[in-house]
Amino acid sequence: MPRNGIYQFYGLATLVGFVMGGIQSLSRSTYAKLMPETHDTTSFFSFFDVTEKIAIVLGMFSFGYINEVTGSQRNSVLALMIYFIIGLLVLGSALAKQKKQVITA
Questions:
Q1: Integer Cα distance of 94 and 89 in angstroms
Q2: Are 48 and 31 in contact (CB under 8 A)?
Q3: Helix axis angle, 3-34 relative to 41-70, nearest 10°?
Q4: What is the largest CA-CA distance in the chain?
Q5: DSSP code of residue 12
Q6: Torsion of CA 74, 75, 77, 80, to 10 degrees
Q7: What sign results for the dihedral spanned by CA atoms 58, 64, 65, 71?
Q8: Is residue 79 within 8 Å of residue 66, measured between CB atoms?
């Protein structure tokens, strides 16, 4: 890797590191808003943590598998972008459903 590429990599890694903490807290607060009202929030957050770990494994596996089959990291990144778009659509529909329930209640 050229010397300039190393600095770009470290710069990008630093930016991603700053953003990841905020994303984690936002995802937990959004998940808390989507939960039904209960006193047993531990079960819901345990499910959230297990789902997060499964998503990490599936995402890394699919990235590696697609990269190995096609020989292109661009296809792997495209697959991950599709996963993110699907997740945003599911989140948007869940938030709209919750908003509709709050309005009708």
A1: 9
A2: yes
A3: 140
A4: 60
A5: H
A6: 170
A7: positive
A8: yes
DSSP string, 55-93: HHHHHHHHHHHHHHHHS-HHHHHHHHHHHHHHHHHHHHH
Separation CA 89–CA 12 (nearest Å): 27
Q: What is the pLDDT of residues 6-28, one digit of tens each?
A: 888 888 888 888 888 788 888 88
Tokens encoding 100? 């509709």
pLDDT digits over 75-103, tens only? 998 999 999 999 899 988 988 887 887 77
DSSP code of 39? Answer: S
Name the token pair of 102: 């709050």
Provide the whole-model pTM. Answer: 0.65
105 membership: H or E segment, kind and range: none
